[in-house]
Amino acid sequence: MITDQLLGLLKIVLLLALYAFFARVLWAVWNEIRVPAVSRVTINVANPEARPEVISATAPKVSRQHRVGSLRIIAPADMKGIVVDLGSDDVIIGRDETCALQLAPDTGVSARHAVIRRIDGYVTIEDLGSTNHTSVNGKQISSPTRLRVGDRVHLGLVTLGVEK
Fold first, then answer.
1. HSE-up of 49 (CA within 13 Å, CB side)?
2. Which of 43, 52, 124, 144 would disulfide-bridge 89, Cβ 3.0–4.6 Å?
3. 88 contacts 52 by C-beta, under 8 angstroms
């Protein structure tokens, strides 16, 4: 025969097991949605002159939406998730070995496709006369265009997301 004390103890054990299960589910969800601390960067290490520098602490003040710090490759799938940190130097994107961000030939990107510059604290992108053009948020650009956090940049078959 089960006593009231034993039933009370079983209730507490069941409640603790339920809380432990709930905590484990929350931990698993948190690990899935948080941003990883280490990012993979595809900066051309063979050409040190082409590497962007770290932004200095004396950078001009810009609005929150224009505080661009990196680009993340969204497509194609085999390159998805690669992050390129932007510094104060120009970042030339293309297939050429001298480009700071060198992409594969099968991506539809020209040898020297586009350049990303930081001008007065704002990050701009300019098409360098590429065959497949450059577009920002689906609109083809013909002059230097300011980038904002959340913009999508299309270079051939490659899609980049603009991040803080």
1. 2
2. 52
3. yes
Residue 3, amino acid: T
Q: What is the Cα–Cα distance from 162 to 83, expressed in whole angstroms?
A: 10
The Cα 19–Cα 16 span in angstroms is 5
- 69 in Cβ contact with 78 (< 8 Å): no
| Whole-number Å distance between alpha carbons of 88 and 48 | 14
DSSP 8-class letter at 35: P
- For 117-135, the pLDDT digits (tens) are 887 778 888 888 888 888 8
pLDDT of res. 128: 86
| pLDDT mean by block of 10 residues, the chain; 164 residues | 85 96 92 57 49 51 68 80 78 84 80 84 84 86 84 86 84
Query: Quick check: 8 and 16 in contact, CB under 8 A?
Result: no
Provide the β-strand partners of residue 162: 71
> Residue 37: exposed, middle, or buried by beta-carbon count in 10 A (0-12, 13-18, 19+)?
exposed
Cβ density class 101-124: b for 16+ within 10 Å, e for less:
bbbeeebbbbebbbbbbbeeebbb
Pairing of strands 70-75, 83-85: antiparallel
Give the pLDDT score at 66. Answer: 64
Does residue 83 contact residue 41 with C-beta atoms inside 8 Å? Answer: yes
